[in-house]
Design goal:
By secondary structure, this protein is of the alpha+beta class. It contains three helices and five strands. Bound molecules: FE2/S2 (inorganic) cluster (FES).
């Protein structure tokens, strides 16, 4: 579990994967500003990754906001992240060309580039 930031904002992160003991849900809290990959690693969750820099696409996860009326919970994907997700076959060309995604919907993201930005709750499936 991570150390809370000075402002005390924490995000509940729920990890769901068949690779986690019989598809169990693992729930952890993390300080805002952290990447989903770092939260997984610090929580002992073996989320697949290679580069950790947004280049390989191996850490693609489905980020699902919980409580769809709250504030934006993760950062918007940048240009390069969208290109990597497109090359990995996770998103369409029109999604890759769109700078502003509807953050209230589930989206494929690169866990190493997806950062928690608000004290809310998110589900991460991989
Ligand atoms: S680990 Fe390579 S893109 Fe995230």
């Amino acid at each position: 579990m991570s150390t809370p930031p000075e402002d005390g904002r924490m995000t509940m992160v729920n990890f769901l994967s068949p690779s986690i003991s019989r598809d169990l849900l693992v729930r952890t809290s993390a300080s805002t500003g952290q990447s989903v990959l770092n939260v997984a690693r610090s929580s002992g969750i073996h989320l697949p990754f290679v580069c950790g820099k947004g280049d390989c696409g191996r850490c693609a996860v489905k980020a699902v906001p919980v409580g769809k009326t709250g504030p934006m919970m993760v950062n918007m994907p940048g240009f390069w992240e969208r290109q990597v997700l497109l090359m990995a076959g996770k998103i369409t060309r029109s999604e890759a060309d769109n700078e502003l995604w509807n953050w209230r919907m589930a989206h494929w993201r690169l866990a190493c580039q997806c950062q928690l930005v608000e004290a809310e709750e998110i589900l991460v499936a991989f």
